[in-house]
Design a protein that fits this description.
Elements: H1 2-34, E1 40-43, E2 54-60, E3 66-76, H2 80-83, E4 87-93, H3 95-107, E5 114-115, E6 122-123, E7 129-130, E8 136-141, E9 147-154, E10 166-176, E11 180-181, E12 186-194, E13 199-208, E14 214-216, E15 225-231, E16 236-243, E17 254-257, E18 265-268, E19 274-278, E20 284-289, E21 299-301, E22 304-307, E23 312-319, E24 323-333
Parallel strand pairs: 1-11, 2-12, 5-10
Antiparallel strand pairs: 1-3, 3-9, 4-8, 4-10, 6-9, 7-8, 10-12, 13-14, 13-15, 13-24, 15-16, 16-19, 17-18, 19-20, 20-22, 21-23, 22-23, 23-24
C-alpha cells in the first residue's frame, strides 16, 4: 500500500510537470511559427538545422550550361511598411551541415554525398557569393519584393561523375536590418547528373537457353520486375535490379526457373555485367561488357532500340552465340 501511495504522489508531480512543460512548449512553438506578428524570413521547403531536410535535384548530363534553382527565400512581411524596406539576407554555404548529414548517412549504412566543388558552378550576380567553400551568399530583397531565388549555373555537367551524388547545404545566417528568422532556415540540396535514358523500368522478357528458357517478368513468372538504368556517360548506362531484392547474384538480368530445373522461381547469373550505349542519331542500342567489370560472357546484339517518344526500350541481345534475351522495358518513373 505504501508503494502505491508513493507512486500516486509521483504521478501527480509528473502530470503537473507535463502540463507545465506542454504549455511552455506550445508558447515556444507559437513564437517560432508565427513570429508574433513580426516580419519573418524563411526558406521554402526548409527546416531547422538539426532536421537535415533534403531536396533532390537532377540535371542533364550534357556539356551545355544549365541553371538550377537551389533555394527559394521568402519574406513574410508584417505590413506594407515592412514590405517596402530593403532587406539583405546572408545565407551560409553550410559545409558543417553537409558533413553532419554525411555522418548520418554512413551511420545508417548509406553512401555519403560528395561536396559539390565550387569551381563547377557560378552564382547569379544578384546573389553574389564571397569566401569560397563555406562562404556566404548575399540575397537582397528590394522594396516590395517578397520572394527571391538563389540559383547556380553549371557550365558543364559532364565534369560530374554520374555514379556520384553531390551536395550543397544552405542556412540563413543573418538578416539586415535585423528581422525574425523562421525555424525553416536550412536546406540540403543533392545533385545528380542523368542522361535521358536514366530511370526505373518494368521488364518483361523471354530467355532462350539450352536449359533455362521461357518467359519472365509476367504475373505468373515473377513479375512485375523493375530495373534501374543508371547514367554512366552522355549516352551510356549500366543496369541494376531493383526488385526482387532477394536475388543475390543478379548483376545484369534475371530469368524464371521452371519446376523441371529446380524452380519455380526467379534466379540470375553472376559475373554477367551488361552495359548499354544508345546512338542518339538512330536510337539503336548496343549491349557490351560494363567497363571494369569481371564480365564472363561475350555479348551479342540482335537489333535493340530506344523509342524517344514512349521512352521505352525494345531489347534483343544475347551472349556466347547461343543464348538470347528478348525484353520490353517500359518506363515507369525517374530514378
Amino acid at each position: 500500500m505504501k508503494y502505491l501511495q508513493i507512486t500516486k504522489q509521483a504521478l501527480v508531480v509528473l502530470l503537473a510537470a507535463a502540463v507545465f512543460t506542454s504549455c511552455d512548449k506550445k508558447k515556444e512553438v507559437e513564437e517560432v511559427t508565427s513570429g508574433q506578428g513580426r516580419t519573418t524570413i524563411k526558406l521554402v521547403e526548409g527546416g531547422a538545422v538539426e532536421d537535415q531536410v533534403v531536396s533532390v535535384k537532377a540535371i542533364d548530363f550534357i556539356p551545355d550550361p544549365q541553371t538550377l534553382e537551389v533555394i527559394d527565400i521568402r519574406r513574410d512581411a508584417q505590413n506594407s511598411d515592412e514590405l517596402n524596406k530593403t532587406v539583405v539576407v546572408t545565407i551560409k554555404d553550410d559545409t558543417s551541415a553537409l558533413r553532419i548529414y554525411n555522418d548520418s548517412l554512413v551511420a545508417h549504412g548509406g553512401t555519403p554525398v560528395d561536396a559539390f566543388p565550387g569551381n563547377w558552378y557560378t552564382t547569379d550576380a544578384s546573389t553574389p557569393k564571397t569566401g569560397g567553400d563555406g562562404g556566404t551568399y548575399a540575397v537582397t530583397f528590394a522594396p516590395g519584393v517578397f520572394a527571391k531565388q538563389l540559383k547556380i549555373t553549371i557550365p558543364n555537367a559532364q565534369l560530374l561523375d554520374p555514379s556520384t551524388t553531390y551536395g550543397l547545404a544552405f542556412t540563413i545566417e543573418s538578416v539586415s536590418p535585423e528581422t525574425f528568422i523562421s525555424y525553416t532556415r536550412s536546406l540540403i540540396i543533392t545533385i545528380g547528373a542523368k542522361n535521358i535514358y536514366d530511370g526505373i523500368y518494368q521488364v518483361e522478357g523471354n530467355f532462350i537457353h539450352p536449359v533455362y528458357n521461357g518467359p519472365f517478368g509476367t504475373s505468373s513468372t515473377g513479375g512485375p520486375l523493375e530495373v534501374a538504368m543508371i547514367t554512366t556517360g552522355a549516352n551510356t548506362c549500366s543496369r541494376l535490379g531493383v526488385a526482387p531484392a532477394d536475388i543475390a547474384d543478379y548483376d545484369g538480368f534475371i530469368f524464371w526457373l521452371t519446376a523441371a530445373n529446380g524452380g519455380p522461381g526467379l534466379t540470375g547469373f553472376s559475373n554477367v555485367f551488361p552495359a548499354y550505349s544508345v546512338d542518339p542519331s538512330t536510337n539503336a542500342v548496343t549491349i557490351y561488357a560494363l567497363p571494369g567489370s569481371a564480365n564472363s560472357v561475350t555479348w551479342n546484339n540482335y537489333g535493340s532500340t530506344f523509342d524517344p517518344v514512349t521512352h521505352n526500350f525494345t531489347m534483343h541481345y544475347g551472349y556466347n552465340g547461343t543464348r538470347k534475351i528478348d525484353e520490353t522495358w517500359t518506363y515507369l518513373r525517374p530514378r
